[in-house]
Amino acid sequence: QVQLQESGPGLVKPSQTLSLTCTVSGGSISSGGYYWSWIRQHPGKGLEWIGYIYYSGSTYYNPSLKSRVTISVDTSKNQFSLKLSSVTAADTAVYYCARENWGPSRYFDLWGRGTLVTVSS
Amino acid sequence: DIQMTQSPSSLSASVGDRVTITCQASQDISNYLNWYQQKPGKAPKLLIYDASNLETGVPSRFSGSGSGTDFTFTISSLQPEDIATYYCQQYDNLLLFTFGPGTKVDIK
Q: Which of A29, A115, B3, B33 could lock onto B26 through a cystine, CB 3.0 to 4.6 A?
């Protein structure tokens, strides 16, 4: 049973870099057919896709966040990570990592529990 | 960018009622439309992919239809455990994902 688990600081100061890691257990991040995504949800609001990475390291980001986002992968640790720079209060959200089925059909079929990150001094 | 709208934004229905949610895309997305259920404090859960395909393990009272710009999600007989917010989500050939604003479903 593949599971995803987010980890990282719950509080980040304005202008600093938010860093989160998603650990994949019960399966290999290097198995084909999946991309690995970050998605966030502002408090009481809808969902915003941030970007994804393939195990090879290829990435694609939401253009609205592209200038501040870096997603990386560490296959030896079965993890992928998110860095979001120059954060403001508007980046306060629950951050989810998710597995995206990559094929003729594309959907997020597995999600982590999410982690709340608050941006505040 | 493709924009997604959902209606209604919230609804209340009785147990056993048929519930219908609509999702509209700002341009033709073929059948590239998924539906998720999110219960309070939980991560979203995939229910329907490619507009009408039921994800494995999802009860058959959930269904979806539509193509192009107009899509419908239906719960044929609302159950107490269906209380949640439902989101549509599109993917397009620009490799972007966009979620609708959500529809909150309550029991009357």
A: B3
List the single best residue of B33, B93, B97 to mutate versus A (max A Cβ within 10 A).
B97
Tell me the count of A-B CB pairs closer than 8 A.
48
Do residue A107 and residue B43 have CB atoms under 8 angstroms apart? no
* B59 Cβ neighbours under 8 A, 6+ residues apart: none
What are the DSSP calls for B7-35, one per residue? E-SEEEE-TT--EEEEEEESS--TT-EEE
| pLDDT digit string, tens, across residues A63-93 | 999 999 999 999 999 999 999 999 999 999 9
Nearest to A53 by CA among A115, A1, A98: A98
The residues, ordered by sequence, that sit 6+ positions from A56 with a Cβ below 8 Å of its Cβ are none
- Please give the mean pLDDT across all residues of chain A: 96
Nearest Cα neighbor of A98 from B34, B101, B28 is B34
Map tokens 């609708």 to a residue. B100
Which of A2, A42, A47 to mutate to probe the B interface, most B CBs <10 Å? Answer: A47
